[in-house]
Amino acid sequence: MTGKRILSGVAPGAIVAALLSSPATAQTASEGAATGGSAPIIVTAQRREQQLQDVPISVSAYSGSDLLDRQVGDLTNLTQIAPSVTFTQSTNALNSSVQIRGVGTSVFSSAVEPSVSFVVDGVVLSRQGQAFTDLIDIERIEVLRGPQSTLFGKNASAGVVNVVTQRPSNDFELQADFTIAEMDEYRARASVSGPITDTIGARLTGFYTDVGGHIDNQFDNREFNGSERWGLRGKLEFDITPTVNLLLIGDYRESDDACCMWQAREFNNPAFFVANPNITPSPTNREVNINAPLFNRTESWGVSAEANIDIGEHVLTSVTAYREWDFRNAIDVDGTPSLGVPGITGFDINNGETNIEQFTQEIRLTSPSGGVVEYILGAFYFDLNLDRLFTRKLCLAGLSAEACPQISVPPAPGFPPILPLSQSGFFNGDVENRNYAAFADVTVNIADNFRVIGGIRVLREELDVGLVRPLEPLFPGDAVLNAQIAPANIFVDEDGDGNLDPIVQNGSIRDTAVTGRAVVQYDFSPDANIYASYSRGYKGPTADVAFDPDFVPGDRSIFPTVAPETSNAYEVGFRSQALDGAFTFNVSAFLADYNNFQSQSFDAAAATFVLSNVGRVRTKGVEIEFSAQPSDRFNFSGGISYTDAEVRSFPNGQCFTPAALDPDCVNGVKDLAGARLPNSPTWRAILNARYDQPLSDSLTGFLQAGMRWQSDTQFSITQNPNTIQDGYAIVDASVGLTADDGRYTVTLFVRNLFDTNYTNFIFQDPVLTGQINLNQYAPRDADRYFGGSVRVRF
Predict the structure, then answer these.
(1) What's the pTM value of the predicted model, to 2 decimals?
(2) Which of these, 96, 82, 94, 88, lies nearest to 145 by C-alpha position?
(3) 465 Cβ partners below 8 Å, 6+ apart?
């Protein structure tokens, strides 16, 4: 029978019992069953409920309670608990990215889909930026590593982050937590849930976050890289009949982030110091000096309906969803107060607006578990409409956009006769993406302890893109940006009338592909198994929808296309547990080859980023994850990942800037074969430990510590030796009191206990490119800070 306790998702009662039954088991992280011999963790990594230890996939599961205990406030913080996950910060949410096993997507073109898919309550998100918000009322997060294109399909060529939020409860409950920390951090979250009638349940969740900036602006005392966010989510669950269940979800969120401004790390250009006399570039620099607006603002909402219908012993599942995401951002690219310093181009306006509308529909038929043959049959439809407006203004006099004179100066040698000081422009881009797919996944239980799994997905990808770059400035009186400056002249006289013409590009891409997987699994005992798998991933074709477009030789109206990215992955794994799950140990070895890997790098000659197929990329390595509870009072868990992620073939790669210092650069390009993928440290390790001490019949004290360590990291695919972050270790700790009935928990915590400085991105300055001039993004916890939280449950 279908009901609130037996759905395609996980039953709320089972999860609460497994993960929140005691202070000790609430800390379960990483793979493995719940500690202390309690009920095993249930996941849906194969689109049906299974015990985590039985799943022949590299998957980690983290409970909502564990996320709260570790101060994992949003999905960008997954790096704190998942050893195979890294995060690359950029100027805004649309360009930032999550990588799994060294593979991800960090590009400027709005037509490119991510390699790591984010799925929230069964709904795939078209862009990762939609998921970079506060985690509230979470039941669990599953991190699936390696290609998952068979069952999850869209955007899953490198992995999936599957987020499951709490369903309405059978009994009334109220949950709330409040956090206050240094640097003006305030967080409040609450949810209320319970039955309305015997067959209708409801849940309402809300949050408000106000995080002060940790980067000081000398120009006007603004604080940057902070955020203010709020949101609501409501759920209604109906047991329409004993065999029909319907879950309706609606959510709304807003954010207004003063983000994301980089900091000067190392500069050799004298003009920088003239413009910023009180800035000292260094790895510990937390100051900037800019005059232009800086913001990332989003508004998003969505609705979904999940229906589960029992058809005999089978379950028919339908998930229908519609979402919108509106995003605006602005950044001061020149990084100065725009005071007219010679050698610095004023670049105060570099603003964008993105509007996303997406509709998804998935239908699955799931057979009962336990038979000789188990199967899932499904169909999927995805429809995306994305509009992108981007505006840009330069001032060759180095002044602000408002102060820049609309005059011309004598030309430099080789330039056209007019060289305007004030130049601006804009473009409109639109992307329409449709994906149709049918899939099947079959498990044949040859014996009680031996099974073979085969899956296939047939998909059709349709992409229509358009771009208009008008031959008119953003502001009356300005020159048109790039219209009158060689060699970056992108406008030409196409019709031969003696006048330059606007750029109008349109393109349509159609592709059909087949992905699949094959798995064999053998159980040595109920507590140990081994598996081997092959999987094929797919990431759709795309085009470079950007401010500085690329062209097809001979026809400037057609988009140059970027081929689909495909992957072939191989994995073997061993999973084990002992003493009813009190101890777990899992290890996997993997190798994945990516063909036509989609990436970008900076073309200094054209002063723009170029999107292309890198060629071939390989990632291989070993992952170990473990958990143990030696006693009722003490438990620990962790993981180690070794990842060798490198370019196998990229004969015409970009040189790093300045190219004169790149010893491998020949005629502006170099062979990048053997280069490490950006932000893919060879080693990462995570360890978490907790000790509970009863203080009375109703009160328990606890002490918890977590450590994450990683080796050196290269942030540039060009292999710039100056964009390497040395290895580092971060230790977090907390101490607190909790009521034995779980109703109250008070915690004091410290992030980065030993005040270890680090950065999560280093890059060459986009304006001062002629010398080694480096910027960085220092995260909030690159400096030690303290805080406290209170949680209540009724």
Answers:
(1) 0.90
(2) 82
(3) 111, 429, 430, 431, 432, 505, 506, 507, 508, 509, 543, 545, 559
